[in-house]
Amino acid sequence: NIAAGKTTVLNHIQSKYPNIEVKTEPIDHWTNVKGFNLLEALYTQSERWTFTFEFYALLCRVKDYQLASNNHNNNKIKCFERSLLSNKHVFIRHAYNEQSLNEVEYELLNQYFEYALTKIDYSQTAILFLDLIPEQCYERLIKRARDAEKIIDLKRLEKLHHYYDDFLKKIDICEVKRIDAAQPVEDVFKQVDCVLDELVQ
Predict the structure, then answer these.
(1) What are 153-171's pLDDT values in tens digits?
(2) Is 144 annotated as a binding residue?
(3) 141 known ligand binder
(4) Is 140 assigned to a binding site?
(5) Annotated binding residue at 193?
(6) Is 188 helix (H, G, I), strand (E, B) or coil?
(7) Which residues hold ATP (predicted)?
(8) Which residue, 55, 47, 56, is CA-closest to 99?
(9) CA 160, CA 86: separation in Å to the nearest integer?
């Protein structure tokens, strides 16, 4: 979920595992599209900008996946901040149910997602899910005080949490490892290390 601790965990992975290449979300792209803050527009004018943002988010993520896959000179394991699958099953689903996407927009995003999925090999993929209740995510969100996120409320985080939970229960395309993100950060790191040590063998 938003503010579950992904950046903290990714920084840990990057410092401890030189054979893992970390790919963070392209926030700088989303907040500056020819000078326009698309991420902020998503939250403040959702009906106008949700389709544009979700399409661009999918495009950015697919490009990152393909770039990583095509880099044959780099045998590093790739670790992405957020799974492409969450775009469709969490964020696009949430936007549609909140009526921020109409039927046509929803269909177009789903078609693009299904096409993108044919270009990505998920057979050797695993999801590390930082499991944290919405209330704690909200506390962290308030504490980090990012301008674009000021409009995000607890209700949105609760809905996203529900969609994540539903998606992870049904997923069969890759392995899912749940990490208890409510633990002290050092314990979170230990749990992450345990999973990664097993995966990178």
Answers:
(1) 999 999 999 999 999 998 8
(2) yes
(3) yes
(4) yes
(5) no
(6) helix
(7) 140-144, 187-189
(8) 47
(9) 10
Q: Active-site residue among 81, 139, 149, 158?
A: 81
Is 143 annotated to bind ligand?
A: yes
- The kind and range of the H/E element at 27 are helix 27-30
Within 10 angstroms of residue 123's Cβ, the number of other Cβ atoms is 7
pLDDT of 36: 97
- The pLDDT of residue 72 is 59
What pLDDT digit, counting tens, does each position of 51-108 carry?
A: 999 999 999 999 888 887 776 556 678 899 999 999 999 999 999 999 999 999 999 9
150 has pLDDT over 80: yes
* pLDDT of res. 199: 76
- What is the residue whose two structure tokens read 């979920």? 1
| Rounded Cα distance, 151 and 90, in Å | 19
Q: Is 105 among the residues known to form the active site?
A: no
Long-range contacts of 45-48 (CB under 8 A, 24+ apart): 46/95, 46/98, 46/100, 47/99, 47/100
Cα dihedral 144, 100, 44, 134, rounded to 10, equals -20
Dihedral sign computed on CA atoms, order 42, 158, 111, 23: positive
